[in-house]
Amino acid sequence: MVIGLTGGIGSGKTTVLRFFEELGAKVFIADVEAKALMNTDKDLIKDIKNLLGEEAYLNGELNRKYVATKVFEDSKKIALLNALVHPKVRNRFINFKEKDISSLIIYEAAILFESGSDTLCDYIITVVSDLKTKVKRIIARDGISEQEILSRMKHQYDDDFKIKKSNFVIQNNNLKYTRSQVNTIYNILNNLKK
Fold this sequence. Notes:
This protein is of the alpha/beta class. The chain has a domain at 2-38 and 92-187: P-loop containing nucleotide triphosphate hydrolases (Rossmann fold, 3-Layer(aba) Sandwich), CATH 3.40.50. It contains 9 helices and 7 strands. The protein has helices spanning 13-23, 30-40, 42-52, 64-72, 75-99, 131-142, 146-153, 159-164, 175-192; strands spanning 2-7, 26-29, 57-58, 61-62, 105-108, 123-128, 168-171. The chain has a 5-stranded parallel β-sheet with strand order 2-5-1-6-7, sandwiched between helices. A two-stranded antiparallel sheet has the order 3-4. Strand 3 (57-58) and strand 4 form a beta hairpin. The longest helix is centred in the middle third of the chain and has 25 residues, at 75-99. It is globular and about 50 Å long. The mean pLDDT is 91.
């Protein structure tokens, strides 16, 4: 059983993912896999340089700050970059799923719907949090300005869209309550697969 886990930037998906992992779920983090591919897949590196210029790589590593600046100021470029990266992430997930006999796999992706990866999932969970909490988390994690955060949020589907397409929603403003919701959903999912 594949469970899609998504939510906007700063919603706390990583925390929720960790709680599921503690309960025994296997996890696949699309963003981590995408970054690994962008640093190792020679064809992808070539395509990214063609799209964004040689500056997209610095000392053989993806120049994340440069790439973020380029794609978040141009919605066409972000779509083109996603079109290069996400089919490769999808293939990597299919291989991961085939190798893992675990009965419950969490596929975590911020852009689950935008990338079409929702089609890989049996059920979908969206993590939501209030805007103030999201902004505070992102500033602490990434050290970027509130204006940059709001700009990045514009490139993701909003929570209402994701909620309508989800089977479960986790409110992530209070860790104790978040853990309780994860436990409940994990039990429901285990009962569904029986």
